[in-house]
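Working notes for the structural subgroup meeting. M.R. asked for a predicted model of this chain before we commit to crystallization trials. I am recording the input and output together here so anyone reviewing the notebook later can reproduce the run.

Input as submitted:
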Amino acid sequence: MEALKEVAEYAQPKGVVIALEPVNRYEINFINRLEEAVEMIDRLGCPDVKIMPDVFHMNIEDASIEGSLMACRDHIGYVHFADSNRLAPGMGHLNFPNIIAVLRAIGYSGYVTAEILPYPDPDTAAARAAGYLRALLPKKAL
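Returned structure, recorded in token form:
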């Protein structure tokens, strides 16, 4: 908490937002769910610290991806997409049309990036992610 507060206070006058990403319990043993990240940010009292939901981790930790995004909407600063198997969106079982609908409904207008495994190779993985998401998103981002 002390280190994050120090970084946030240094970054704030420079206009830099700090993103805190909850990561699933198999990779770290704290800040696994969006709700936990929001609680920490609220205790910190630094408005330029936001959460970075990653739907891959949310699929493991949050009871409802859509419900958690709605509940934590005021704290979202950046979003990572990957399917349930960490492959490109559309290659697993996550419901990206619903996830995107929720991001639209809460008025999220920031960036969404694919953080995926490079399978079968980086170029193919990136092309699959881009093709799938382009079909779901209008020319203008969320």
